[in-house]
Design brief:
Blueprint: H1 3-22, E1 44-48, E2 50-59, E3 65-74, E4 80-89, E5 92-102, E6 112-120, E7 128-134, E8 137-143
Parallel strand pairs: 5-7
Antiparallel strand pairs: 1-5, 2-3, 3-6, 4-5, 7-8
């Protein structure tokens, strides 16, 4: 065999190996998932939102409708608003604004500000002065 034909055979063999390597197919289990799985609730931390201040808005309607504008902050880049709840005891209307974040997430440490408006349930309350408390920030409210 001449040096030229030996190089030709080596080159052909090398080309065939490269082509075989390029055709390699991984089974579906090894491929990356495109849809993230939902995180179970137990892996979430639910906390009170940081509230800076509140504003009360009474709409000129019958029956009276009340809204509260909440200004606050979220503690890091992974934290999101989760919802709110309300409980009335005597003349105190207590509202909690809640946040959620993945329990073990590594997040940016940048505080994010928010402004959100929530309805205040006043149906069935007699006219009078009440205290609206949202996560520790309170203001008086007078229902006609």
């Amino acid at each position: 065999m001449t040096g030229k034909s030996l190089r030709s055979i080596s080159f052909t063999f090398l080309a065939a190996l490269i082509m075989l390597a390029a055709c390699r197919h991984e089974p579906p289990a090894a491929q990356a998932q495109t849809t993230p799985e939902p995180i179970p609730e137990s892996k979430q931390l639910i906390r009170l939102a940081g509230v800076e201040r509140i504003e009360i808005v009474i709409l000129e309607m019958y029956p009276v409708q009340v809204r509260v504008v909440v200004y606050g902050w979220l503690s890091d880049g992974c934290t999101k608003l989760h919802g709110f709840d309300q409980k009335t005891e005597g003349t105190v209307i207590a509202m909690r604004v809640l946040t959620t974040r993945p329990r073990d997430a590594i997040c940016t440490q940048a505080i994010k500000r928010f402004q959100e408006t929530y309805p205040v349930e006043t149906e069935g309350l007699p006219p009078g002065t009440y205290t609206l408390d949202v996560n520790g920030k309170s203001k008086p409210i007078t229902l006609p």
